[in-house]
Design goal:
single chain; alpha+beta; Hypothetical protein YwqG fold; seven-stranded antiparallel β-sheet; 25% strand
Length: 257
């Protein structure tokens, strides 16, 4: 029973369910799949080698060399660097302490992206690793990468709820009817853009890389979307995914579709 002028939450005055109520009820059904995604907010400026950033100068220990592509022998571009120490306390740290680094060869002559099939996991023209963020580091006045992108320093992380794509939901046993699929498409999940954790955006069907040690699907860590914080396009407006094996943490890779 309700008081005069009041209604049941999620219902219109005539008792019909509102759009907001339908959305809330639908997302409540999907609550087991809700994950927190952390979106890096970056600005174009230089940052210390240990900082979280896109492009620019990475943390490289003194006595070590900038990672080079085995195919062309040129320095690979730093695409992303996330220092676990920069993450909010509420964020999980699935790669442990240290600095997650993603390197990618952008050389055009030869085109290492094509020759090494960089879209596939474990391509030799890419490198993903976690390095300790301690000790003396090499000083670079500028990046040795040919055509290096402007450095963008991460100033903070914003958290948003995230949900998997409809096809991935169904692969996990939750099926959507036609109207629910339309509603889900309008909601826009999974969240687009560069993000840490949450759910990946699949442009060619769900396809988690498999660990070469145990053949189990690898876990999603980071998404890099064409043209977000990097002035780079993966194929035709593609999306790059960084994954890691939970059982063999030294196995990390980047792949895209």
């Amino acid at each position: 029973m309700t008081l005069d002028g009041e209604g049941v939450p999620g219902e219109a005055g005539d008792g019909r369910e509102t759009e907001g109520g339908k959305k809330d009820r639908f997302l409540a059904r999907l609550s087991p799949y809700r994950r927190r995604a952390w979106f890096p907010i970056a600005e174009e400026r230089r940052a210390p080698p240990t900082a979280s950033k896109f492009s620019g100068i990475p943390f490289i220990k003194r006595g070590e060399d900038w990672p080079c592509c085995p195919n062309c022998e040129h320095e690979m571009a730093l695409f992303a660097q996330i220092n676990a120490g920069d993450l909010p306390t509420a964020a999980a740290k699935p790669f442990g302490p240290g600095i997650l680094q993603v390197f990618y060869c952008t050389t055009d002559d030869p085109s290492c992206e094509e020759q090494c099939e960089a879209m596939a996991p474990f391509a030799e023209s890419t490198l993903v690793r976690v390095v300790p963020g301690t000790g003396m580091f090499r000083e670079f006045r500028r990046s040795p990468v040919i055509g290096a992108f402007p450095e963008r320093a991460v100033v903070t992380f914003e958290a948003w709820d995230d949900y998997p794509e409809a096809d991935e939901l169904e692969e996990m046993g939750t099926f959507l009817d036609a109207s629910e699929r339309d509603l889900y498409a309008d909601l826009g999940y999974p969240q687009p853009g560069d993000k840490l954790f949450g759910w990946p955006t699949w442009l060619a069907g769900t396809s988690y890389p498999r660990c070469p040690d145990c053949d189990e699907p690898m876990a999603f860590l980071l998404q890099l979307e064409s043209g977000d914080n990097l002035p780079f396009e993966f194929g035709d407006q593609g999306c790059a995914l960084i994954t890691r094996c939970p059982q063999h943490p030294h196995r990390l890779t980047v792949s895209w579709a």
